[in-house]
Amino acid sequence: FSRLKESLAKTRETFVEKIDQVFTGRKGIDEELYEDLEEVLIQADVGVQTAMTLVERVRKGVKARNVQDPARLKDIFQEELEYLMGDKISPINTNPDGPTVIMVVGVNGVGKTTTIGKMAHNYKEQGKKVLLAAGDTFRAAAIDQLEIWADRVGVDIIKHQEGADPGAVAYDAVHAARSRKADVLLIDTAGRLHNKGHLMEELRKVHRIIAREMPGAPHEVLLVLDATTGQNALSQAKIFSEAVNVTGIALTKLDGTAKGGVITAIVTEMAIPVKLIGIGERMDDLRPFNPKDFIAALYG
Ligand code: GDP
């Protein structure tokens, strides 16, 4: 928990401290205060829609409790934020009958390879047999990077040559996972956005092949988003979820960014649960997302 708290320092500075400033030194609760609150929320990457919802809820809370003192707004705000974020922890799906197949998607640079490496590490720590698949055959560097992680963590990797068919990699990986009795198969995919149509077609094809070779798979399609991109993360979520059935989100780089407020927008505006958060570059810096802990780390 202390590591989480430490990693959220930047977000705490912009989000919590600026919001506190809105509530302090006021004579009363007026329209200007609500406008300032909305502005601070939007600046903290909470998103326009969520900022408006949140302010509206605070306004109603104030009315319902007949609050006059601005100093009490902090507690009301925190309660409403907790309400919007919910208290649900969404774990990564598992397959009780064999290998759990996890397809990992996202734009280049968001931290896809790192997240796969950290997940492999976590599963291995739990005593699980892990297999990686280098499905981004478009970039030789992507295959190399994944191999570095496989070596570092000490797990096997299925890879083909650069330029090979990613569908063939997925096919081999699913069969290898079965025959080697792996518990978890983590499949990397390409993330070049310069030709969005091609990429989405490729992802759909990989998804189709996985499902054909193992009915019920992939058990998880994890979309990796970079918190430092703020509202862009939301547009990426929309693009990817139109192409494949995204079942969970991993939000990376929450450490060292002031844009951590974007998680509020993702939680409230997307129908896909945030399952993991990345809070640093170390192997153990990937955590299940627990909204209660997250808010406590921001405020505590
Ligand atoms: P990919 O292109 O999506 O596979 O991205 P990479 O996994 O190569 O990551 C891009 C950069 O982001 C690397 O320098 C990673 O170390 C860094 N990175 C990934 N996740 C995190 C995180 O949670 N926190 C921080 N600070 N850096 C991260």
From TrEMBL:
Entry EC number(s): 3.6.5.4
GO biological process entries: SRP-dependent cotranslational protein targeting to membrane
One Gene Ontology term, aspect cellular component: plasma membrane
SRP54-type proteins GTP-binding domain ranges (all copies): 273-286
Chief localization: membrane
Alphabetized GO MF terms: GTP binding; GTPase activity; signal recognition particle binding
Keyword GTP-binding applies: yes
Membrane topology: Peripheral membrane protein
Catalytically driven reaction(s): GTP + H2O = GDP + phosphate + H(+)
Pfam families found in the cross-reference section: SRP54, SRP54_N
Keywords, alphabetical: Cell membrane, Cytoplasm, GTP-binding, Hydrolase, Membrane, Nucleotide-binding, Receptor
UniProt keyword Ubl conjugation present: no
Top EC class for this record: hydrolase
Subcellular location: Cell membrane; Cytoplasm
Positions of GTP binding: 106-113, 188-192, 252-255
Reported function: Involved in targeting and insertion of nascent membrane proteins into the cytoplasmic membrane. Acts as a receptor for the complex formed by the signal recognition particle (SRP) and the ribosome-nascent chain (RNC).
The protein's assembly and partners: Part of the signal recognition particle protein translocation system, which is composed of SRP and FtsY.
Family stated for the protein in its record: Belongs to the GTP-binding SRP family. FtsY subfamily.
Stated name of the protein: Signal recognition particle receptor FtsY
